[in-house]
Amino acid sequence: MEMTNWLPEHSAALQDLRARGLSYSEIADTINATFNTAYTRYAALSRAQRMGLVGLDRVEPSLPGRLDPPKPSLPKLPGIGRLREGRAELKPDLLRWPKIFAEAVEMPQLRCAAVEPRHLSLLDLKRGDCRYPYGGDADGETVTFCGHPCRPGTSYCPPHFHLGRDPEASARPVLNEAWLQAVGAI
Questions:
Q1: Which residues lie closer than 8 Å to 25 by C-beta, 6 or more apart?
Q2: Counting C-beta atoms within 10 Å of the first and last residue's C-beta, which end of the chain has fewer, N or C?
Q3: What percent of the chain has pLDDT over 70?
Q4: Which residue, 23, 56, 157, 133, is CA-closest to 31?
């Protein structure tokens, strides 16, 4: 997936075209023709969602054989030459590029389970064995699994289960009996 950064001119054009009632496909085509970009319909829709413009207020399509309703006239948008001039004036903070960290980041202390793993291979695991992985951090390092008996209803032994779960939240059943009866499971 390619990350795209919408320039303010593109966002303003999107907002104006959406206000005129154009579809997101038509909006993407217009912006692409005006600014020499390659936005898709979905990119225009996603940007509109982030801007809070998305709504289902689109007019229903006409029936086959009937004349389509007239489309609103397309706005006059600035040309590409003006866009390039405007880019030089943009401040770097408006582009919101990802930050690059030059300094070393200190890794947090990882939690460990108080259990000695059996280091079983994937082929050696049996039904009911803990599937908590060990190794594989370095290239070519073998991945093994804990292999201790699992906690009922999970793929992990109790110590590994509590590493990744909040004990209070996991004590509450997700599917209670009333819910299961409502959906016809019991």
A1: 41, 44
A2: N
A3: 55
A4: 23
